[in-house]
Amino acid sequence: MPDKNKISDALEQFRKLEAGDAQLAGKLDEFMELLRSSELDSENIKGIRKRINDELDQKMSSSELIEELKEVSLSDIGKMDQLDRLETLLNNNDLDSRTAGGQRWSQRAGKILKVIIGFLFITLGFAMIIMPAPPYFEMFTIFYFSPDDGVTLMDLISLTIIAIGTFLVIRSLINEKKV
């Protein structure tokens, strides 16, 4: 018996959605009739076109929709309210696997770029330590191993650059959830 109630509730919700679409189609027909009967100049037509395009673009913006879906799914509201909001968002917006895949690709590309930059920092740091620098660039020695050799300020700067590169690589490879 509970399954019958769920099915009837789902059918009722679909009827409401169809009625909403019919209402939207009716309003669109009224709008088209108003456009035909009005005497608009080119500037007004451009303004109306821009407003309509902006609304449709905002309605169809997939990255904002995905972010809104994430916010709703991670929010601390009741599960039924969460499901209702998710249902409303998914019914009112077009979302498919290609849209979500595109966003995943951009996240992966960002991670790959961070890893590459991190390895470049590590390579630069080691190159600064290994390659000899001119005496005026070595600044001053902090710790002497011998009278002619020691740890210079340039070596410490190089180690800092290596640490930053290592931090970037590790941070970009760790899979962390953002709230």
In a few lines, what is going on in this structure?
The chain has 179 residues and is mainly α. Helices cover 77% and strands 6% of the residues. Strands 1-2 form a two-stranded antiparallel ribbon.
Integer-rounded radius of gyration: 30 Å
**What characterizes the major β-sheet?**
2 strands, antiparallel
**Mean pLDDT across residues:** 75
What is the count of β-strands? 2
Instruction: Name the helix and strand elements from N-terminus to C-terminus, one letter apiece.
Output: HHHHHEEH
C-alpha end-to-end distance: 39 Å
Strand content: 5-15%
How many helices?
A: 6
Overall helicity: over 70%
Please list the strands of the largest sheet in the order they lie side by side. 1-2
Low-pLDDT runs:
none
Alpha-beta classification: mainly alpha
Form type: elongated
Attribute tags:
single chain, 179 residues, mainly alpha, two-stranded antiparallel ribbon, 2 strands, elongated
Characterise this structure.
The protein has 179 residues and is mainly α. The longest helix is centred in the first third of the chain and has 36 residues, at 2-37. Helix 5 (97-130) runs antiparallel to helix 6 (153-173). A two-stranded antiparallel ribbon has the order 1-2. The model has no long low-confidence stretch (mean pLDDT 75). The chain has helices spanning 2-37, 42-60, 62-74, 79-92, 97-130, 153-173, and strands at 141-146, 149-152. 77% of the residues lie in helices and 6% in strands. The protein is built from 6 helices and 2 strands.
